[in-house]
Structure formats: structure tokens, C-alpha cells
Amino acid sequence: MIGIIDYGMGNLHSVKNALDALGFANEFVSDPKQLDKYEKLVLPGVGAFGDCMENLHRSGLYEAVDRQVRQKKKPLLGICLGMQALFETSEEKGFHQGFGFLQGDIRKMEAEGYRIPHIGWNELVKNGNHPLLDQLPDHAYMYYVHSYYAQNYREEDLLGYSIYGPLKIPGIVCHDNVLGCQFHPEKCGEDGLKILRYFGKEFV
Amino acid sequence: MLTKRIIPCLDVRDGKVVKGINFVGIKEVGDPVTLARQYYEQGADELVFLDITATHEHRDTMVHVVEQVAKEIYIPFTVGGGIRTIEDIRRILRAGADKISLNSAAVRNPQLIAEGAKQFGNQCMVLAVDGRMRPDGTGWNVVINGGRIDTGLDALEWIEKGVGLGAGEILLTSMDTDGCKQGYDLAFCKAVRNRVNVPVIASGGCGALKHFYDVFEQEAADAALAASLFHYGEMTVGQVKEYLKEKGIPVRL
Questions:
Q1: How far is Cα A118 from Cα A56, in angstroms, rounded to an integer?
Q2: What whole-number distance in Å separates Cα of residue A3 and Cα of residue A69?
Q3: Is the domain B5-246 a CATH 3.20.20.70 member?
Q4: ipTM score of the complex?
Q5: Which end of chain A, N or C, is less surrounded by CB atoms within 10 Å?
Q6: Probe site for chain B from A110, A139, A143, A191 (most B CB atoms < 10 A)
Q7: pLDDT at B218
Q8: Nearest-CA distance A71 → chain B (Å)
Q9: A76, A176 in Cβ contact below 8 A?
Q10: Domain residue ranges in chain B
């Protein structure tokens, strides 16, 4: 059973719809005490970083998720803002601490002559070797919609990126039992579903 | 490389997709869920649903349509029309939409953009603007209520203000070219694109493959929206993208 963490941020139903379509048992979970019963966790997220972390702390989910991931080594997939929350800090509207499962921080995207937010389908360039990458075609496109991106990450954690003008945008990141996608795999057509299928079936 | 987007637009009234010609002679063209699925399979980059339901009683129908569509397609979609409050925005997003578009309601209450952006993020707030060239040709005015009311607001100023309040994208419809099938309003699109740094979706006037090419080649838009062309089967989304690729425009195929 996959638990989709509901902390009042984001479009949870789309993740659920996609997992349902792929045949993975899943449900929403908002009670921190219930996290034990799930084999895998998904952290979705839309909105602002600060609100996201505040909601996680206020609900008690922060400590619960942290324990599941660090101590119980439970597989976690962070999506969009949920992916950004996996990093150490963010400078979105102030300065905020994330989970720190991944090394790196979230910075504002700035590129002369390029529109921000970065919205639309961008080609995903594979980086390194990872079983997930074997399941994706060489020229997959993923749908991005964001104004902040991960920087100062460990090169070995980067599985895929997209190029936007002068910027190299981390698209898929992975470290041990933690996987993150800057784009929404549940909104990236058949190739996006392949990532969710990999997470549900094979990841860790 | 970021690709240019092709976006079919579906006008929905009381749960059915309809198409009007110059806002009269509205007729039904199909079921929104079936059409959405069809466009998804053709390779549409995203979809826009515009709720033109006349009465308040039928508003819940749209939420139901959104729920159904979200189960059928795995690409982003925007819902607009009749959204007036934060609660409306929340309901539509919770039902599975990725973005909401605000038009007349934002003109009447600009704070709605700011509130929506604060709660749900700039990325899901699309500012839809219908504009018409002023009679003296000095610029474009914002028109609301489906083209019936000229607000007297300068479109470029309004758009700049909207982006400042938190709109993450502009859906720009030219009332001068809409329905004419002579091409997008390139001058208007470019003026907006030069004024603000968020993506611009061009809408109104597309009648031929070449029009998609023109709007991208001239760097007038980041995405192009069309309705009747696709509804009446004049061309498929796939054909448009094949054509653009051949002409050297980056598209997702």
C-alpha cells in the first residue's frame, strides 16, 4: 500500500488517479501515526515552500516522515514542491529548512531572456546509470511548471535534467530510498506513468 | 529544450462541449471527457476547459466534469469560467485541475489573483485577458463578459498588474481576430510578451497550419490555443505538431 501524504498542499487526486490506473493500492494519509502501515510514501506538493514545511511541522507529519525515511528506510517519492522539500534549504519567500534527505538547496531561477515560471514540456536528459533510466526513452519530455530549482546537489544524485536557456534544471533526483521529480510524473503522459510504475513496483 | 505547446480549448456548457460562432449560434459538439481523451491521445500538450454555463445551478456540473477528465488524461489542464472566489478555486483544483484561469472576476477583484497565488502558487494562476484594439489604434482595451463590456482598462497595463499580483501565465485572446480564422493577433501577442516575463498563450484567429507556425516563428507566444479547428476535425493536434516539427519549431512528439 502506498500512502499519499495529505498535508493540505497540492493536487492529490491526480497522483491518486495515476496510481489507481497503474493498479497500485494507495490512499491519502494525514495522520502521522498512520505512516507505519504504508510500504511506500508519496509527498506531493504545489504552492510555496514555506507554507509546505509549516503545514508538515504543524501536523506532526514532518517528524513522522523523517523517521520513516531515515530510520525505517521507507521509499519516498517527492513530486514538484514535494521534491524540493527533500533538499536542505529553500530561499523561496524567505529562508526555510527542508528535510535534508538530499544535499542541495532550492534557488530562484533567473535567466536573461527566458520566461519564469518555466512552463511546458522539456526534454529530459538522462544522467548516469540507474534502473529507472532504462525504462524511459532517450528523448522523453516532461511537463515542468516552477520558478525555483535545486542547486548545489550531488552530481551522483542527479538522474535526469532539462536545459532551459543557460539553466540546467534537475528533473529527477535520487539518493538511497528517496526519489524526487521536479515535474509532475502523473501529468507527463505515458513516460511520466513509467516513473510512477517504477516507483510502485521496483524502487528500493 | 523547452517545446512550444499546442492547447485545444473546450467550451463547456451544462456539462457538454459547445462551440459558438461569434458568440451566437452555439451548438453542442460532444462530451468533454471523450474529447479530452481524444486530444490526449493525439498528443495535446495540455487542455483548457472554459465553463460557459449560464446559470449558477449548473456550476457543480463542471466540478464533476473536472473529476471525470482527471481520471482519463495524464497531461495538465486548466479550468476557467465562473470562478469568483478562493473557494471556487480550491474546489476546481481539488477535483483534479492543474491551473485555473481568471478573466472577468480578476478585473472586478484583482486581489483574487494575489490570494490564489499565495494559497496555491503562481504556477496555477492563469490570467485570461480578452482584448480589443482601441478605435484610435493606440493600444488594446480589456473587454469582459465575453466581449460585451469594454472596461476602458489598457490591456498591457492590466496584464503587468496581474503578473505583479501573482499570475504565472497569460491566456491572451484577441477579440479582433477571434473567429476570423485569419491567424493570431501577432502584434497584440508580441506587445504582451515584451511587457511581461511569464509565458503567453495565444488565442483567437487560428484557421490554418501556417498560423501556428507564424505565432511561434515570430516569437509571439509560448503556446497556441485553438478550438473549432480541432473540434470539427479540420486537423488533428498530431498533424499540427508534425507540421511544426518539419518547419523547425520545437514540439513534443
A1: 26
A2: 13
A3: yes
A4: 0.92
A5: N
A6: A143
A7: 97
A8: 32
A9: no
A10: 5-246
Q: Which residues of chain B carry a pLDDT beneath 70?
A: 20-27, 54-57
| Whole-number Å distance between alpha carbons of B98 and B78 | 6
- Nearest to B1, CA basis, from A85, A17, A163: A163
Backbone angles phi, psi at A28, to 5 degrees: -80, 145
Query: Angle at which helices B237-246 and B32-42 pack, to 10 degrees?
Result: 30
Per CB-CB distance under 8 Å, the chain B contacts of A21 are 71
Residue with cell 515560471: A117
Q: Please count the residues of chain B.
A: 253
Closest in A47, A48, A119 to B199, CB measured: A119
The predicted model scores a pTM of 0.94
CA distance B194 to B178: 22
A17, A21, A121: residue with CB nearest B252: A121
Distance CA A189, CA A140 (A): 10
Give which of A5, A163, A132, A152 is closest to A79, Cα–Cα: A5
Q: Which domains does chain A have, with CATH numbers?
A: 2-201 (3.40.50.880)
Q: Does B120 touch chain A (CB under 8 A)?
A: yes
